[in-house]
Fold these 4 entries.
Entry 1:
Amino acid sequence: MKSKAISLKILPFLILLTINCMGQNMNNQFSLGGDWFYKLDEQRVGIKEKWFEKNNVRYDGNLKVPDFFETQISKEFDGWLWYFREFDFSSSPEEKKLALFFEGVDDDASIWINGKFVGEHKGYSERFYFDISQFVNDGKNFITVLVSDQGGPGGIYKPVYLKYYSTEQELFETEYSKQVARKSLDWVKEGIIYEIFPRSFSKEGTFKSIIKKLPYLKDLGVTILWIMPVHPIGEIKRKGNLGSPYSVKNYYEINPEYGTKEDFKELILEAHKSGFKVIIDEVLNHCAWDNELVKKYPQWFTHDKDGNMIPPNSSWTDVVDFNYDNPELRKYMIDVLKYWVKEFDIDGYRMDVSELVPTDFWEEARNELEKIKSQFWLSEGTLPEHHLKAFDMTYSWNVYDLFKPLLDDEKSPQTLFNTLKIEKYTFPKNSLRMRFNENHDKIRATEIFGYDGSLLTVAVVFSLNGVPLVHAGQEVGEKEFSSLFEKTEINWEQNLNTNEHYNLIKKLIQLRKNIPGLSLGEITPISIDDKILAFTNTNSGKGICAFFNFSKNVKSIDLNFVNELKSFKYDLKNITGRKFSIDEERMGRPADKIINLEPMGFAIFEISK
């Protein structure tokens, strides 16, 4: 049986682990995987005490990289975790630059080489690197990584390595970028996804209450309803009073708090009548401890060295981890997926923690499910290989993680274009990414980005290529975080006519519907001002032009001098935006092509050739 739990060996004396990079050359890439030393920093004193300097700290033990910290240590921990190791280095005869490359860290990372600060990266899951050419010495070098874990499992959970490079394309380009993503249905490519947690969606928290809201959702303009898990919730080791919907007690039943199977069928039927597509959240990486499968098929689960079933990590204590090495488990799960499509006519799935389940299983399952009906599958992950055969779409954490640094003036708005360029180097051609500024795993946008920031970032989401997500409640500026474990409720008692979030999102949805093809559009940067994010998103000669002011000053944009617009026609009478004005006259001459943006203001308009 596979074991995700790795025992910690506490060494009586501490010797830094060494890697001879020149002996591991594969395409100028040298793995830093294996044993690292670590130390927990519960008081967050490591920077002040200079733990990043060699021999300046006593380690707690050693860890394997890549892996989640909680997988190896039987302790739930959120906060600061330090990683340390040595490596040998010899300078490149080709005189290329040297990158320290991370495939993914959960959540934020700060890096030191030989006691010198290299940089920090904020955000979960996405690939990133630092040029460390000026920080390394011939011979032994000391690397320190501080991981700041914001919640759930954390650590250096994907590969990390050194790599020689000349260009970023050479550094980031994957084998998948030369391939083409699976072809998605038109309603997927042109979709507006709306995420619903039945418990918090209304006071009743039922399927029938969602049915009552369908006319409202139709008027808003969303097209794909994503319903979070609908199954009964486990009671053993439950978190909170009501428990997480991601702790599934029975894959073939409906959570009685939401209603009956007949109620769910009615919801799907009425949604289809109203023109919606419906996908449901499915949780196949783990299940509740009181799911009948635990006693019936113990061989389907992950065990530790003592033979005990274990959760995926020490944070997810309310669930037990499946072992997909078992063919019978794979068949069972494919049958589960078939059941909900056949019996309820759902239109697809959002697959929870999809990166933790083998990709070949997803590919096999998708192939079987497509024999029933064409569907939409959303991966809660960022793996480029998911786009080839199994999934239509992955999460765009890369863009989400930029919003806070941009709003806090820690990064230039132009950073977004480099992020999108790296995305092209990484993913198959025509890959669909789900863009968002809010989802159920994160604090509400109005809280984390502020009132103005939540409006500006959702406008960026709808202006980019990819498929936009609206998290239920964000369209009315909801501030309360929807707990997975307790009852919360969206405040619907608002005047929609005067609600700025509602009216903006409704306009943005209509803008997307006016211009088919934006999800696979070409993003062309417009260089105006370092604090202005400006670009066009076009497909087949039609698209949008967007300007966003991240500065603290009013900015004027004279469209007469924007070269990227010279070949397009446009009409500024139908701008979607806020905190902007258009000059009718300047210096006694017509100036109807000058847009003034206040701080946090933005303007988006249609363009065509």
Entry 2:
Amino acid sequence: MMLGIASMLTWVALFSAGLLIDSEPYRTALTKQDVTVHNLVLAALLYTPTSVALLSMLAGLMGGCSSLMYDHEDLEEQVKSAEKEGNQQLVRRLTLRLSYLSESPFSSMLRGFLVYLAIISGILLAISNPFEVTSADQFIRLAGLFSVIAFVMGYDPTRFEDLIDTLSSLSHKAAGKK
């Protein structure tokens, strides 16, 4: 519980700093051979790509902490019910969900970082120099998107799978397929 609160407060502080403080002076100082711990740390914390990476990790950590607060009894009952019905696919799915909800928040934090790597890779493939000029608007959009996905993946990745399945079935319906 305390880890979750600490990660939430750290997320808000880092988000605020990334939004309000320009990283450009610190990055410029580093390129002009003024390499100090102060410039290096502030450039890393405030520059949009690295700040969003840290925010994604914190969001994954918050998701993992949140999942530990979930009451697992209902899910355990669903597993027992699916076992009685002989629905092995549902048993596997619910057991997987139960394991995600019970794991260490640090595993969730790593999944949050994986979310960052996956999305940033796509951005870098699609757009050349996406961070050449950064803005507060860009930071808010990226931090929000990455953090929401990282939180969900940290909380329970099967929820993200459910979303993908739902979107897939909606697109099939829209295309007239069954």
Entry 3:
Amino acid sequence: MNTSSSIPPINKNEAQGIARPLANYHPTVWGEFFIHLLASENQIDHAQVQQRVEMLKEEVRTMFSMSSTAYDGRRVDEEMNLVDALQRLGLAYHFEDDINEALARIHGSQMMVVSENLHVVSLRFRLLRQGAYEISSDQFNKFKDVHGHFRENLRSDIQGLLSLYEASYLGTSEDGILEEAKSFCKRELVSMLDRLQPPLTTEVVRALDMPLIRRIKRLEAREYLSFYEAAEGRIDVILELAKLDFNRVQSLHQEEIRGLTGWWKELGLIKKLSFARDRLVECYFWILGVQYEPHLAHGRMLMAKLICLASILDDIYDSYGTFEELLLLTDAMQRWDIGEVEGLPEYMKTYFMALSDTIKEFEDMLLDGQKSYLVRYLKEEIKAIAKAYLKEAEWCNEGHIPTLQGHLQVSMISSGTIVLICGFFLCMRDIATQDILDWLASYPKIIEAAAMITRLMDDISSHEFEENRQHVASTVRCYMEEYGVSKEMAHKKLREMGDTAWKVMNEE
């Protein structure tokens, strides 16, 4: 539906004389960049590239077939390296069945269990934990001395230390040895940085900055491509496939952002709601961090639209609406009836109509599978986030600083995590079932942990900017006030809470 002609602009006179907590966000830096980029620079022969990609994929599948025969220690090692390379290069989506079968073989092999090679044992542990296999961390005890400390001779095993460090971030609350390993490896890796040579230096620096399991997969694919190209044990077939596939998928992503830029321009929402953030490209990039695969293109574009509109809803509650206006909007969203928005200010009508149109796109997407009724789950989560935003606006209006736990009960919902996960499930139409969405609506531990991480990391990075204007207290401020500590100590404690939440996600 073309909403640009159906939604009215803000009546600029309605805001006169009203004090609003404007954030004065900077305008977008992108404009129509992607439209012009594609017109002049993004010309590739898709048919020719696709043909070559298919040929290379068959060669890689042959490698899996070869590894599955005569499964000795060398074959296990080769297959683990193959799986690791494909995952890190962003190629795993081509080989899901092959990788699952390989992981089953790796899990069943006892050869690596008795290995004394720290890198091999650590890589096996990480691959299997990532693949949801039960595998004990007790196996790392064999790398300790009689005093219970990691052995001195491990300090010169750079590859082993790096692999163990990455594996340590797959720990749960029951894996105390992985916390020991993390501290040991970090200390040793930092101490040897000055003595390392590229490209290993870059790998170690990147690991210390952000462990592999927490990185954005698409960025990791590009970064690892350069590292893999310089690696001694590289496989040229995989390298060529990685380069072709990255460029091919990047071209698709650019096509998508071009389409979204056109939609955003036609919608004209930012011109009508000039107080809000214009962050289309950033919202799309956020989605790429979760879903980059070509077959998810339609859902990815819908999710980008949803995040853009969620961002604007946040801005309405956070940096423009008066408390009285926000009460009206929250009530209207609970009723979710486009015919009953006449009592809203014009800018809120504008927003609500745009949101309704986008939700209708979700319903249309699911129409063929007769699953459009499932969109009600998404609506309910949007209603919940509106209530959470209103509660935060109430705290802001009253100057109230809640306890940390009181804040989190509201702000984990306002983080938008469950709204976005619900949207993701709907976009993956095959798994969008009532049972799955009922499970999501029950707010299970893994979803709670994800929301906790999102909220804490967002507040740590943004609270100083937000405190320059009238704004609800952040979790950082709540912790400082409740426990009488400095900002730095609050950051430290909240990061520890985030690390605990990561362990819950690993366990679940």
Entry 4:
Amino acid sequence: MKELALHILDIAQNSIVAGATLIRIGITEDMQ
């Protein structure tokens, strides 16, 4: 789970560096 959190943080940081003013990150877990 920590690795997933680091990937999400990386996406957010890259978006901010690219000039994003709104960042939406959705996660859906499939329990099947």
